[in-house]
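Changelog excerpt

This revision adds worked examples to the README so contributors can see how folded entries look when concatenated. The first example is reproduced verbatim below.
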Amino acid sequence: MKEIIKLIVKYHFTIVFIVLEILSFSLIVMHNSYQRTVFSNATASVFGAISSTTSHIKNYFSLEKENEKLVAENTDLRNQLEKQKLLQGKVFSDSLSANIQPQYVFRNAEIVHSSFNKTKNYITINAGRDAGITEEMAVVGNEGVVGIVEKVTKHYAKVLPLINVDLRVSAKIQKNGYYGSLQWDGKDYRYSYLNDIPFHVDAVPGDTIVTSGFSSIFPEGELIGFVESVDRKTANFLTIKVKLAVDFKKVFQVYVIANTHKQELQELEAEAL
């Protein structure tokens, strides 16, 4: 209390001056309509700017929650879409329809670590065994295919992305169905290469490349990218440069796809061998 009194005594002239200035300004505004109007407009403008800034700050900090909500809704929509595909053209009672399980089930996850400037890049996601994630599950983003789950722990999973030289994915040209093997050459993270496409196949820049569905991992038709160029120098097969749909520098939300028929397919194929 003594310090406050000392401070007031020390700066009493300044304090009196400020008080008189405020009082004078108040009297001018109160007794002059023009000054009152100007002050009112200025005050409204200042408070409006403050309110707008505050609102933007609140919106910014709520983006994470909103994004999580949107991802959850997208996951649910994808699962509903898979169920509708199964029911399409078939007639079931309401009770049977409710119990039908689609072949592919989507789960959402976030990327917690990734690399894109190595030849053997990898991605870590924050969903593991406890979330129902297992090895050899497909991973996609909103833009397209991301990669395949390689290793799983209790809470995390390691993903081999398309930009890993060890990963090969069965892919096809959407317009004609010709399929081959997509593999990255270890150079530019934006491009990969579709191989084993016969020389006579019609492939031109802009054609869409999607997953073939010829595996127990990826559903058919998941977007991979678009034809950038076609090399016809070899005699038997084309070398197709593909611009990947996913920008691996910016992807942070993914969906892990579980094939509920995977074990059945693998058992059947094992018997055939």
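The second example, added in the same revision:
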Amino acid sequence: MRKNFRVIKELVRLRFQNLMMFRLGFFGPFFVDGSLFLVQLLVFDAVYANVDEIGGWQRGEMILYIGTFSLLNAVNMVVYFFGVGGIPDKIKSGEMDLYLTKPVSPLLRLSLESINPGSLPLVVMSLIIIAYGAGSAGVRWNPKLFAGYLFWVLLMLVLYYDLEVLIRSLSFFVVSTAKMQKLEEACISLSMQLPGTVYYGIYKLIFCFLLPYGIMATLPVKYLAGECTLPAALYGIGITVLFSALTALVWKTGIRHYNSVSS
């Protein structure tokens, strides 16, 4: 564990060092991602301005939902999105060989070697939206409530990470995962607009179990709203454990069957 922490620290240091060699490449994403977030916020405001209730949630809960999903997406973009996103290309090109020969977890290095501080403004803006939504929904923060919300956000970040790695790990077994990644983008785009409370029947099966993007921001907001029942909490924890195990299995199986370009 201590060795992994040292590796993470060094990866972050090297990443910032490389970014600062090109100042525009470092500061440019701050402006681009910040502007994108503002445009997205205006779109959401236009959609929900005249809507009183969606899936049983009032406007305050919906603002919380938008802020929470944006926070999950922003942290994902900052920490591991660009690293995990490169897995398919590294498998195809044979560059994965270099990661397998290093004395550190290849998935850990892949995940954290392309940290993107340019998306940090999205994290800050998402927190502002969450604070505004909490005020609109009448949420009274206290240490217990904050700790519970933080727990659910971190747990859903693990689920988000699992799904990203799982989809891209399929590159070990298929020629291209482009269609799966397009499906992922469509699911994320839909889930950023609709909470899991609106899904029923086959849609609930798809977006809350098979591709559980629908629960990612829903469960943290349910906790804040006092609607997170014990069965819902157990389900959220269980689905995260299930996908973590499935992702680990697919990744390890893929590594075992990986054929180096030099072999």
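Reviewer comment on example two: The radius of gyration is 19 Å. The longest helix spans residues 230-257.
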